[in-house]
Amino acid sequence: MKMVFRNLAIATLSLSPVAAMAHPGHESTAFSSGLLHPITGLDHLIMLVAFGLLLGCLRLSMKAKASLIGGALAMLVVGVMSGHQFGLVSGVELAIVSSLFVVSAALWQAFSASQTMMKAAVSLCIGLVFFHGYAHGVEAQGTVAQFTLGMAISATALMALGVKLGELAASRWLSVGVAAVSSALVLVV
């Protein structure tokens, strides 16, 4: 089963476009733009809700879940700052696409993997959130802090929504839904 999932991920990634999925052209200087973007940017919407689903499916305290959401937000902010500082770097788009399938694989394993494996998977997911932020930092102009604040508020709400959904409908089959929506996104873009 692991081999099939790995081959599916490789095949899907090989079809992924090289164009940035950060949706260039949106206004990235205002709080309202940052607030709306995680909702209107499908790649971010999928990643944030799926990460919340993953946390919701794990048997963790609310304090632990809040800490992990905080870690993901920190990576998002560091990504925005880094992207704004360093500019376009090759491979960011591939990391964004990969993150969607990594979180899906982590969701699948949430019900059977060891604690050590799940800690590594959650850490990897948090690390990959960096690239979602980085892509926006590259295109951000003007008041990056306002954009980042708006984006952090929406990102928190989306992850919290995912946590609640994951707690209500905890199933490894959620990962199949995340992978299917991610594949559709990759093929459409």
UniProtKB/TrEMBL annotation:
Protein's name according to its UniProt entry: Urease accessory protein UreJ
Signal peptide positions on this chain: 1-22
Record-annotated membrane-spanning stretches: 44-61, 68-88, 94-113, 120-138, 144-163
Keyword Nucleotide-binding: no
One Pfam family, short name: HupE_UreJ
Organism of origin: Vibrio hippocampi
InterPro entries per UniProt: HupE_UreJ
Keywords: Membrane, Signal, Transmembrane, Transmembrane helix
